[in-house]
TrEMBL record:
Protein name (Swiss-Prot/TrEMBL): ABC transporter substrate-binding protein
Source species, domain of life: Bacteria
Domain spans labelled SsuA/THI5-like: 129-281
Pfam family of the protein (one): NMT1
Amino acid sequence: MLSTFREHRPARVLSAALASALALTVSGCSLDNTGNGDTVKVVIGYQSKTINTVTAGTLLKAKGFLEQRLNAIGAKGGAKYQVEWQDYDTGAPITAQMVAEKIDIGSMGDYPLLINGSRTQANERSRTELVSITGYNSKGALNMVVVAPDSKAQSITDLAGQKISASVGSAGHGTLVQALTRAGIDPKSGVEVLNQQPQIGSSALESGQVAALSQFVAWPGLLVFQNKAKLLYDGAELNVPTFHGVVARRDYAKQHPEVLDAFLQAQLDATDFIHQHPLEAAQTVADNAGLAPEVVYLYNGPGGTSFDTTLKPSLLAALEGDVPYLKSIGDFAELDIDKFVDPAALRQAYQERGLNYEAELADNANPLPGSGGELWLTGQDTTQSVADPTALLRAVKQARAQGKTVRAAYVPDAELGTRWFADKAIWVRDGDNYLPFITPAAAQRYLAKHPAGAIVGFDQAVNEVRV
């Protein structure tokens, strides 16, 4: 039976207790005297197509939450505020601009965050602090390695000696380095990594110039959705948390604490919105990032990325464990994680809203939990959740019988739980049950223990399943 999808997370208690921030006097060299009063400029660096940062980037910008909060401060008298948004493909150019003191607040993945902290710490004016998390995955899922649709590769070991495209210093590259290392392949000598931006790497994969592409969200899902690639490796196999977060220049935050507070409040607004209206949020992000809504919803739908702003100990421990990565890719200065992370401003933002920061910090559950599957029919502005993947197949079969078109269907991987496109999964029939696996290696691991199982195509599974 189908059940209508319901949002799981209640709305936060919005508080007007911004008095302390509203009363702050604005001063410092960032003021631009325009003749119409003092104007404080804040430059935000974001990545429109990096779905795990949308609550501090694309969605935040599209909904105007930051501008609304800054306007509320300005309406109390004093300075006016001007927000400038700068869109980049990866975290590296955001870091370069922060080093040059041209970006005040930026969002990026965990490995780029390490580089950001290392690169900016030499100069007090450019020095940054990690102030919040945008989204995370406790197992490291959704950073992925994909290959061409006709590739013979079945596992990461099949990439030995091959050319692989990745953005060096990105979360996708960090996943590749760890995956190769665990497979016994030297990331430097065992493969040839081409340092390419995601779009360039996608073209290189499509033209056959590289054997694989290792990237962060949403590139793997986009290419698979477009039938330009198939999934070979999911970062969840590493079982190491990955996340994206927000960094702010300490000097700017010191001069304009009310701006950082407004940003974090706005990020909480965007986080609430994605929890309460995930499908609408996906469509908003898609419209503003030039991505297919089905791809965006793969990541920010139920059971996808955990959008949670708190700086969880498990994530910081993973970041600490990633520090050696800096040395593996270049000459980077040592980074003290304890000094790099500062939750004080976020704690204040929670307090102003009457929220319990410590309670959310201790809660490791996805605020928007998934189900056994989710069905999105063409022409509908709601989705339906089902109990398990076999039930999803039945729902698809019933929809087709009624002449309805399936816009997208999502299932959790039977081994690691990663949310994926149902029609792109590898299905195994085992008795009356149908199990989806998102990589060939995962399916083979199951079959090795359950020899009675058999691989079937998605359409075959839909046709076979008993209604």
